[in-house]
Write a structure and sequence with these properties.
The strands form two sheets. A two-stranded antiparallel ribbon has the order 1-2. A two-stranded antiparallel sheet has the order 3-4. The chain is elongated, with a radius of gyration of 16 Å. It has two helices and four strands; from the N terminus they run ββαββα. The chain is mainly alpha-helical. About 5% of the residues are buried. It has one domain.
């Protein structure tokens, strides 16, 4: 990844992952879904060249069902707009 034509530093990668995690949390909340353990994967954020992975975590059946419904709804809206 590059930022303004330069390689991202390790702290930049982690900050970027934190921002994206927050964006995802907000988007899920707007869709009526809350993943209780949404966060950064600590092990992937360590070291000199972190991957900074976002851990979607675990959820119960009701939350998984709500997430699936929100995704289906969004896909349906996008397909309707394309017609």
């Amino acid at each position: 990844m590059t930022t303004a034509g330069r390689q991202q530093t390790a702290p930049d990668k982690v900050r970027d992952a934190e921002r994206v995690r927050d964006e995802l949390r907000d988007a899920l909340k707007a869709a009526g879904v809350q993943l209780p353990s949404l966060g950064l994967d600590a092990a992937s954020c360590a070291g000199p060249d972190p991957l900074a992975l976002i851990d979607l975590g675990r959820c119960n059946v009701a939350t998984a069902r709500a997430l699936a419904a929100a995704l289906r709804s969004d896909v349906g809206e996008q397909q309707g707009a394309a017609r």
